[in-house]
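Box 3.1 A note on notation
Throughout this textbook, protein chains are presented in two layers. The first layer is the amino acid sequence; the second is a C-alpha cell string describing backbone geometry. Keep the layers aligned when reading.
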Amino acid sequence: MKKVIIESFTLDHTKVIAPYVRLIAEQVGEHGDVVTNFDIRLTQPNEQAISTAGMHTLEHLLALTLRPRLKGYIDCSPFGCRTGFHLLLWGKHTSNEVAKALKEGLEVIVNEIEWEDVPGTKKEECGNYKDHSLVCAKEWAKEILEKGISEDPYERKLV
C-alpha cells in the first residue's frame, strides 16, 4: 500500500495545550476556490474526552452558533476521539477569527440555549436523536470558556 500522510496524525498530541484553534490547511481547488480546515480542540488529548451525547449536542449547537459568525461555513464535524472538531470554511480565515467566533458561540450555548433551541433532535432530523445531552454540552462549554480559547496550539494566546 502506498504511504498516505494524514496531517492530523503527524501532530504531536502530547505537546498541544487545549482549548485552541489551529489552522490545519488551506486547500485550493482546480477553479481557485479555497477551503480552510481548522482543528478546534476543546479538551486536552489523551486526558479528557467529551461524552458522545455531549459531543453530539455540541456538534448541533456549533452548527447553529458558528454558521452566522463565520462567512463561508461548510461543516463542523467531531473528531472520533471526542476531543474537538474539524471546521471547514470557504475562503481564507485565521485561527484568531475562528477562535473569537467559537468563544462567542460557546457563550451563547452557556447563556442562551434551552433544549427547544437545539436543532436536529427529532427522529426525522437526526440519525441518533436519542443520544443528546444539553446539560453536558453546557458544562463543557463553561469549562472551555473558563480555560480560555487560544489561537495557538502550543502557547496560550487567548482571544
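Residues 110 and 138 are 5 Å apart (CA to CA). The longest strand covers residues 20-28.
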